[in-house]
Design goal:
It is a single chain. The protein has one domain. The protein is built from 7 helices and 13 strands. The strands form 5 sheets. It has a 3-stranded antiparallel β-sheet with strand order 1-9-8, with helices on one face. Strands 10-2-11 form a 3-stranded antiparallel β-sheet, with no helix packed on it. A 3-stranded antiparallel β-sheet has the order 3-5-4, with helices on one face. The N and C termini lie far apart (about 40 Å).
Length: about 250
């Protein structure tokens, strides 16, 4: 999946045009996410991500059959362009979302459902003089590139599963528009809206057969991870307030 806010210049990886390309180890690719206040998560990541980030759902249009879709994200900041987890040149969290760990690589499915491995040519990690090579002297993928290709392929499989999970939660009416209101230490109000969250009352009143379905396919656990993750909004608010205070000093 290509994320325009992250992948500024995505192109298909080419063994001829990119044969001499190398990844510099002295550059942190995560710096590309400095201005992102939310980032996509796959359902498989909820169990780890819920310990560090608030996990929210964003409306994501409709599929080919006209069914509503949503995309789970890790909230990274409380306002546009704010990433509170990029601090002093490093990622300040125990868990880093999978697609960020794959960057500057990404997958782009074709209409025929084939996967094309892409790179972001705008990334500052690229060099033709030094670093980890993508191809060997014979033009074959290095073990590093082979590993990244495998990682990207696994992510794309999880993206499809996540899309199906979100579709089912919406079909059951378990996700609804939510908002978060807070007051900063200086007295100014802060409101975050435009996201979806689980309706706990509807979840509790689900028929037994649907509850059993969610328990067996893992979606019930996802909803509990989502609910537990919302406690991280308080920590995000604290870091946001500290940042504002430091900027005003």
């Amino acid at each position: 999946m290509i994320i325009p806010e992250l992948h500024k210049k995505p192109v298909a990886l080419d063994r001829v045009g990119h044969r001499d390309l190398k990844v510099r180890r002295d550059r942190n690719p995560l710096e590309a996410a400095t201005g992102l206040n939310a980032f996509f998560l796959t359902a498989a990541e909820f169990i780890d991500a819920c310990r560090d980030y608030p996990i929210l759902f964003l409306p994501a249009g409709q599929d080919e059959q006209g069914k509503a879709l949503c995309a789970p994200v890790a909230a990274l900041g409380l306002q546009k362009g704010e990433n509170l987890f990029w601090r002093q040149g490093r990622w300040d969290a125990r868990y880093v979302p999978a697609m960020l760990r794959a960057y500057p690589f990404a997958g782009a499915p074709t209409p025929e459902r084939q996967l094309v491995v892409c790179i972001d040519e705008a990334s500052e990690v690229w060099s033709r003089e030094e670093g980890e090579p993508l191809f060997d002297a014979d033009g074959q993928p290095t073990p590093y590139l082979a590993g990244m290709r495998e990682f990207v392929e696994k992510i794309e499989i999880e993206i499809d599963r996540t899309r199906q999970a979100g579709r089912r939660l919406l079909e059951l009416g378990l996700l609804e528009p939510r908002r978060f209101d807070a007051t900063l230490p200086d007295g100014s109000p802060l409101t975050i809206d435009g996201f979806l969250g689980v309706n706990e009352e509807k979840l509790a009143k689900l028929p037994d057969d649907q509850t059993l379905e969610l328990a067996r396919n893992g979606l019930l656990a996802l909803l509990h991870f989502h609910l537990a993750s919302l406690r991280n909004m308080t920590r995000l608010l604290e870091v946001h307030a500290e940042k504002r205070a430091a900027e005003a000093a």
